[in-house]
Amino acid sequence: MRFDVITLFPDMFSVVRDLGVTGRAHRNEHWRLQLWNPRDFTQDVHRTVDDRPYGGGPGMVMMAEPLEKAVMVARNARTDTPPVILLSPAGKPFTQSRAQALANSPGAILICGRYEGIDQRFINRCVTEEISLGDFVVSGGEIPALAIMDSVVRLLPGVLNDADSARQDSFHDDLTGLLDSPHYTRPEVYEGEPVPTELLSGHHANIAQWRRRQSLKITVQRRPELIEAARRQGLLSKADEAFLKLLSRPN
């Protein structure tokens, strides 16, 4: 697994390369990271990568040529043909299933835009996919790229100490895309609030049922559209539906 990142701020990626789960995975060679700065592919003394937009308007636009040259070098440095992904608010929403698909692949080239935008001709010529993290705007594509890499790397075999950790995450396919249930650890009572008795029972079936019901309850309260999506896919059991019916009854 390898990520090539085109960015004006390569130092930002030391977080995912050196720290935490992804840092350990990088040291253990579960994945590789190569950074490419578009300024290194300019010809002028100022290393210019942006210019004013045609038609007027605020801000600056990233130029096509430095970005395309960076992509070409990144492609030539690889032995596969990865997707070229632009982090963009106009892209398709990033999902757990897309993260899993990337984890099952050799990786990708990620484009981190800055300023007001990127010359559309570069997008037309080089970008194979646009991805968004949500309906909000950030200063550049670096933070979304970091989030995507973190979500993908943790799914790689051998990265997490507990193989069940990724499977129990919110949105994982095995849990039909529901939000995760609450978690507890020691002490058994904190500030007068005890751990739910079901989790102390040692009865695996009861614990699994409690977690499933809590997951359903939280999801229907916070993200009801996920319940509907799971229902349309036939991923809810009769027991799930019976519990949801109970939740819908007025107190």
From TrEMBL:
Source superkingdom: Bacteria
An annotated Gene Ontology molecular function: tRNA (guanine(37)-N1)-methyltransferase activity
Residues annotated as domain tRNA methyltransferase TRMD/TRM10-type: 1-228
Gene Ontology biological process terms from the UniProt entry: tRNA N1-guanine methylation
Broad class of the protein's primary localization: cytoplasm
Entry EC number(s): 2.1.1.228
Assigned GO CC terms: cytosol
Function as written in the Swiss-Prot or TrEMBL entry: Specifically methylates guanosine-37 in various tRNAs.
Alphabetized PANTHER family for the sequence: TRNA (GUANINE-N(1)-)-METHYLTRANSFERASE (PTHR46417:SF1)
Subunit structure: Homodimer.
Name this polypeptide is given: tRNA (guanine-N(1)-)-methyltransferase
